[in-house]
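User: Here's a chain of 850 residues. Predict its fold as tokens.
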Amino acid sequence: MPRVPLTWLAEHVETPAGLTAEQLAADLVRVGLEEEAILPAAVTGPLVVGEVVERTPEPQKNGKTINWCRVDVGAEHNEPGGDPRGIVCGAHNFDVGDRVVVALPGAVLPGPFPIASRKTYGHVSDGMICSARELGLGEDHDGIIVLSTLGIDVPVGTDARELLGLGEEVLEINVTPDRGYCFSMRGVAREFSHSTGASFTDPGLPVPTDERPAGFAVELEDDAPIHDVPGCDRFVAQVVRGVRATDPSPTWMQRRLQQAGMRPINLAVDVTNYVMLDLGQPMHAYDLARVAEPIVVRRARTGESLRTLDDVVRTLDPQDLLVTDSPAGRGERIIGLAGVMGGGDSEVGDATSDLLVEAAHWDPVTVARTARRHKLPSEAAKRYERGVDPQLPRVAVARAVALLVEHGGGVADDGLTDVDRTVVPSPIELPADLPARLVGVPYTADEVSATLTEIGCEVRGDGDVLHVLPPTWRPDLTVGVDLVEEVARLRGYDAIPSVVPAARPGLGLTAGQRTRRSVARALADAGLVEVLSYPFVGADQLDALAIGPDDDRRRAARLLNPLSDAQPLMRTDLLTTLLDTARRNVARGESDVAVFEIGLVTLPQPDARVAPRLPGGVRPSDDDLAALEAAVPPQPRRVAGVLAGQREPAGWWGPGRRVDHTDAIAAAQVVADVVGVPLGIAADDARAPFHPGRCARLATADGTVVGYAGELHPNVVTALGLPARAAAFEVDLDALLAATDGAPLQATPVSTFPVAKEDVALVVDADVPARDVLDAVRVGAAASEAGDVVESVRLFDVYTGSQVGEGKKSLAVALRLRAADRTLTAAETAAVRDAVVAEAGRRFGATLRA
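Assistant: Prediction complete.
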């Protein structure tokens, strides 16, 4: 994200007095540059220039010597009566008469480090004499700043925050990929001018192409260009000799680099970075003694490698564009990864005095691919891949050379290298009425022409068609609609009326979309909270769920460029990521968790087609797109939930109730009820991550398994740090929707007749599933003489003990009976009870508990 110091911006465009970062953000957002953050001043409170009037060294018992100083900080800031302030200082690189920077009580330095009067070494130190490091201006901590050594001569009491640029806010902006020119002060100043009408002075105008002697030899040899575009079409270089290359850069330059988020290094590196930030042209400075003519720009060969400036040896790809040279007796040598990062063999060192300053124009696609291939998102690559002005290299080299000569004492060679193979872009034909037709604002042809001229275009023609030649710094302007967008942007998005099109009858959400929303509402009504998790997982997450090596869920799609190397796989079930969400909540103190998610899973097939590798920079053919779509694995939509801790909280009504497997089964049943598909529920003992004895397999009427629900395995609960007896469910929502007939659910008429209640306690073998007994109860009740009058069947008690016998259990079932056309008689309800007992007895040998 580019950072914009206000004083730096003011060097290129006229800014109003008192401009704040907040106002600048408001001005820039009108032309599409959004505020990312406002960075506050590095120092707040009183920071002033002082003069040392007394310095008394005082040795201490610990062997250290401190200086007890009297410092004149001006009449406004001195002690009452005008006496200089007393300050303790541990540095020794100053003396009486030196002007220094003093932080007074109430100031806050970077850190934050508040300054206050405090007693130390037997004195009350009423402030602090500051070093560069303490002010965030550099790494020099052993010596304080002596202003005279920096060429600064200002009166005592002067505000040092303004003097050193420490009281300035910095605006950080968000730049869209098509506006790469705004990664520079030049570009942001231009946009500020567009927004406010302020006078803009372009520092990047081409320098006169006067005749110069030939400079350092450069050859462009790109025999394998990508999408028929050469990797380099301009290369400018100049030699500067006798430069103090590793000296510190000027304080003002260091401060601006720091405000822009870059670390000052030395004069040679800082100058190239400063010019890049100012103009938008990345540059590189080579140690002339470590490069040999000619420099050759070419593609990499198979097997080549390069040690880059970050001291990493990188294996190169044939599509990588390289900068090479040919040292005597050593053959070809790679000295840089073009547009991305220089090589370690030619970097500036302590002995460097002669520099080769280079600026080039590289192909954005080549740079982008190289940067991503080697995971090197350098500042240079960020700019090149968005498009850099091909007219800037010569301007940037001239600017950098001038700064090196001014601050490093160098002498520039007369010779200049400028290999220029750039081509002028073709004009764009723009119907004059196209902006009005597309945007809906009646722009006139004159307004369109004036707006495009303002952004730097050359506009010819005053009839129905305009011939527009975009400026060199706008490579994103290639077709008519790009120009339409510029007209809309500069004329003001707020001038575009909001016109909502009328909805066509019969459109809206599909039946599946409505059902999915209903499922989410129903689960939320049941007390679960909807969450959204990333669909990326790692093998360790599958291990934690005890998913076996032969499980189909281990067959996952692997990402080529994952967000995290720890999670390179696409999830094959929802529970893997949802359980991680539950774990994170529990780890942060939420011991009672009830969450659910509706999302896609990716299920690669063993015989799946391989996706084709599509060419870059061009639209794929229809056949390529069809092959790509055919290779996409199935991605069914599922719904899953995790419940842990207390399902019902404790209170005056009782101790509460802990989650168990029945809660997960009930939640899955809620999903099925909303969709309108009856679920068959059967025990399952082989599905990870569930408890073997407390897991239910969920299936439709035709036997299709659509999910699982139950208690999690104790080992899984322990591995994830969840509360004991945590439960979960996962259901294939697409499979449930496919099991419906498409007809809307029909509401059941509400009977006006009273309900009849019958409770039946059935004694069965202990290994008989309760679900099977409930099915028998429903079938028996429906077959009774009273007809189908069952409104609900609910298990409300399970008892084992001596009263029912060894190996037996008692299941107490509450029946609620109601007829639609009459009040049920006692005989009819008794008939239902008898039919229930008979059916359970026939199936399981059940008897009525005495």
